[in-house]
Amino acid sequence: MMIINPEVVKMFHYISSQNEEQKVSTYHGHLTCRYGYGRAMKTALQGRSGQDFLGVHIKDDICNFVVCDGIGTSNQGNSTTRYLGNTLMDWLDSTIDWSSKEFLSYMEYIPVIAMKELQNPTPLDTMYICGRIELPTLEKPIGRIWMAWQGVSRLRFWRNGLEVSQYFKGTMRKEEWWSISEGPLGGSPHVYQSRLEYGIPMRLQVYTDGLHDLDPIHERLPDEQIQILLDAPHTDGLIEDAAFLELEW
Question: What's this model's pTM, rounded to 2 decimal places?
């Protein structure tokens, strides 16, 4: 029997390895996802793991993502960012309460779980940005974007070609981060939520400070130019680890 128009679920899943570089790559689905990862040159030469983390999961019109930027120089920092990154990916996929209060409570609770699962981990810190995009469709013309963060990783948002990142800039604070032993430090997580309307093109860009050369650039760069920044030939390699994520719909 022939099955006509079978329902195909489009899925994409990527978690940075932290032990190797990821060339700029693109996934095309209901939204377009570009991603890349690079270790600092010093880290790579010493054969150590990068401290930044990038995770993204797309299933049809739903996208969850996490970017973490480890603080400090300890080689064990990668385990902290990976633990928080994977834990937040699980939370984004399962939570039903998107309030600021609930997210703060969860971020305060994670250290309790970590102490048991990691058996008294080294007290290290990380900055992070996480989010969930529920795309609008013809059947459901109003979607949603939800994001939360602490620290100075970059969060940039374009609506219909115009950058509208002003709200985020005042909340990117170097004195705020998350500790695997204490939870949020320096302040509470910042949470942003907005509706998404069908038919309005949008672009979201998230990256860690290793790619600070992107800061003054407003136009969409081709893959090759993003890769040049990740390879950093002008400085003989990245000075800091770098994680890059760009989502367009």
Answer: 0.93
